[in-house]
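User: Predict structure, ligand adenosine monophosphate.
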Amino acid sequence: MDNCIFCKIIDQEIPSHKVYEDEKVYAFLDISQVTKGHTLVIPKKHVSDVFEYDEDLAAEVFTRIPKIARALEAAFPEMQGLNILNNNKEMAYQTVFHSHVHLLPRYSKEDDFSIHFGHHMEDYTADQLAEIAKQIEMQVKK
Ligand code: AMP
Ligand code: ZN
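Assistant: Predicted complex:
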């Protein structure tokens, strides 16, 4: 797609530090290196976000993730964990609108990555949760 920075990276019009490539997927170091080895995995096909994936594309991208995760672990034995993150739309911190999955190796609790899960279980009754689940379940397309 014209004017997409990640399509340009795939086409080698913009340099990147590649860590993996095959016919469907390209993976390269995130320029921000939140932690050492911070990697982005992208489909070669331009899609903006997860809402545009069909099942084949999802399989193509997500089947590659464990192999790249294991490569990070093998490359950096001091790695203690890995966060896998996929931001979708501006509200959810997406800034580049060619879908990408972040692999963020974790070495220490004092590193520069954080994620906060607020705990709101007291805010919902069991009936409300059942209603919320039903609203979603009814929309899942088979
Ligand atoms: P997000 O906020 O989830 O959309 O993440 C976009 C990511 O792309 C950020 O972490 C940026 O550091 C990264 N990024 C932007 N431009 C480049 C580039 N030219 N090479 C590598 N990573 C990039
Ligand atoms: Zn693109």
